[in-house]
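Lab notebook, page 48
Experiment: co-folding of the full assembly
Goal: obtain a model of how the components sit together before planning crosslinking
Operator: M.T.
Materials (sequences as entered):
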Amino acid sequence: MPARPLLAVHDLAVTFTQRRRRDVRAVDGISFSLGEGSVVGLVGESGCGKSVTSLALMGLLPPRGVQVSGRALFRPGGGDAEVDLLSLPTRRMRDLRGRELAMVFQDPLSSLNPVVPIGRQVTEILVRHRGLKGAAARSAAAELLERVGIPDPRRRLSEYPHELSGGMRQRALIAMAVACRPRLMIADEPTTALDVTIQAQILELLKELVTEEGTALLMITHDLGVVAGLCDEINVLYAGRVVEGAPRHDLFRAPTHPYTSGLLRSIPRLDAPRDEPLTPIRGTVNDAIEWADGCAFAPRCDNYAEDCLGGPPDMREERTGHRFRCVHPVHGRAPGVPEPTATQGGDR
Amino acid sequence: MSLLEIKDLKVHFPIKSGVLVDRTVGHVYAVDGVSLDIEAGTTYGLVGESGCGKTTLGRAVLRLVPVTGGEVWINGVDLAHLPEEEMRRSRRQAQMVFQDPLGSLDPRQNIESLLMEGLEVHGVGAGRSERRRYVLDALDAVGLPERALNRYPHEFSGGQRQRIGIARALVLEPDLIICDEPVSALDVSIQAQVLNLLEELQRERGLTYLMIAHDLAVVRHVSDAVGVMYLGALVEEAGSDALYTDPRHPYTRALVSAVPVPDPVVEDARERILLQGDLPSPADPPTGCRFHTRCPWRQEERCDTERPELRPVGEGHRVACHYAEEIAAGEIAPRGVVGPG
Ligand SMILES: Nc1ncnc2c1ncn2[C@@H]1O[C@H](COP(=O)(O)OP(=O)(O)OP(=O)(O)O)[C@@H](O)[C@H]1O
Ligand SMILES: Nc1ncnc2c1ncn2[C@@H]1O[C@H](COP(=O)(O)OP(=O)(O)OP(=O)(O)O)[C@@H](O)[C@H]1O
Ligand code: SF4
Ligand code: SF4
Ligand SMILES: [Mg+2]
Ligand SMILES: [Mg+2]
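Observation: model returned without errors.
Model output:
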């Protein structure tokens, strides 16, 4: 029997209520879970609710003008006791954020203090959350910077965020995130602003941290290539809901929701021959209808039929661990995966 | 025939300093000696990291930045040596499509006036009704309806705005379109729509493209030939397929190995070449081979002191590395390669 997950999100919904404007239902019932030390991906296009989900889990949504419902059960310290991150008092949440939960954002400049040297920012965390003092804290900070691949860390301690390159800043932010050895790290597009060779360095670093420190990682990105190499489990979001979720090999070998399969057909693959055609998904995300009225992907879907309307399609599970929310799923193969041949298996 | 020929192009931006008198204290070597040819009706892709000079090169072709040295020939004519009036007319042959569709469109102009503008500036079409015909034709070519004409840019989605940007270039019936990151601001499902549109327009109208983008997979997909830039210079040029199957320059190898592929089977089996450190400043480029500060195959002396020239290593394949042959033969071992898994 599988162990209880470290984090289990049930039916998370977030609605922004704005005066004199229509409410925005940014997240519309998201469920997924994440095991201890595992890497889970949330992927989807702009506006599908990835960042709002992560902010809700971290308790960082604005205090006013937002309604949150659902549960996010987290086991502090990996123990038996569970807390609901969505209803925890602010003080407890702040405490958890320092020790057990950490977050890395896309734009490190906005999450680093511009007028405080990097070293002091890292040291402060060590003092506050690990009870280190003075020289011990400073040398632990230097060790951390070295750990995340910042060259010449002792000298860097006195540098300000703007003196570092984008890649180095993101490393510094990761150093701060892992300073208190969190049990769960949420990374929201941590490499999107970086060049691809620097992205490769950062992804390698994240992989190392997960393996060596046992930190679980919730990886948020729009890049299906990034999750393919990094995540154990992947959840695909569309218009505020998970439309498909599966272990990574399953998802890419047998994408089942028309949206997932459409995405894979519309991405140029680096390893594809130059003349392989792309098949775009028609329309745009703005064509979505409300889930309450039916499948939000319906206006763009080739498999659409009338029974796709009248409420959100149920989440179904056909193979173990492979879930999808669709009435007429595709059972196609991903582009680039060969047809199985009759000789396969019996061939020796 | 070559539609665009660039010979030893250089764009050096002066770095100014001084309180009373502007003094030039150095230069940003944004483009520093690039030569390339683009065959009529084909697509040439230009890739490289942020700040390597891609946009500057594209703008230099259109003379939108001051050119420090070198030549740009379009349709066999050197723009620099044309009288002002003729140069303005020649400019019509080459148009640009930008990354940020909203930022490059004036929000107060409706689509009709945005598309008319270029025609008026270049004096194309006899009278308003003929111009309107050109505009409708361009709009139709990018798949937008006639009623789009009296709407404003903010009323359109990102993908539609990019179509408008393309229509604005197309309406002048150019031979060459320089696309600077045309799809990088778009969601992947929309990227494919725009890439397919560009390919279709090329087939129908025999357009030539210079396709600038940082996404190697996108560039390979649309390009016949690809040039890889590093710190203002080309380090490799190859056919689109060869660039993936047979990359020769260490930087290209690292780039190819770093691009994530949406397929776990491929990802698990890949060897990743991790570069150390960051891109050096183009204001103070390294001596010798500009890549030597990050190159996993760097050799003492020669790499640090002698700048490698872009030299042919096969049909349509050029590379700027002293040791390309030895590296291909496996005679020099790299540092910093991460194995599969
Ligand atoms: N503070 C807010 N007030 C009102 N609406 C909001 C607010 N924050 C987000 N939204 C809306 O919620 C939806 C989801 O936004 P979110 O930022 O989670 O998207 P995302 O998936 O992270 O997209 P991206 O890939 O662009 O970062 C969007 O429609 C967005 O406009
Ligand atoms: N007008 C200018 N004045 C001074 N320096 C400039 C100017 N335009 C560009 N540069 C510098 O020239 C170098 C090349 O810039 P360029 O915009 O061509 O790079 P790029 O390859 O297009 O990068 P990106 O991928 O980020 O768009 C950079 O260091 C940039 O800061
Ligand atoms: S439920 Fe219907 S409309 Fe929605 S994805 Fe499935 S087939 Fe398409
Ligand atoms: S010339 Fe030397 S430093 Fe430059 S790419 Fe070749 S091996 Fe590397
Ligand atoms: Mg976001
Ligand atoms: Mg640019």
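Interpretation: Residues 107-179 of chain A form one domain.
Next step: discuss with group before ordering constructs.
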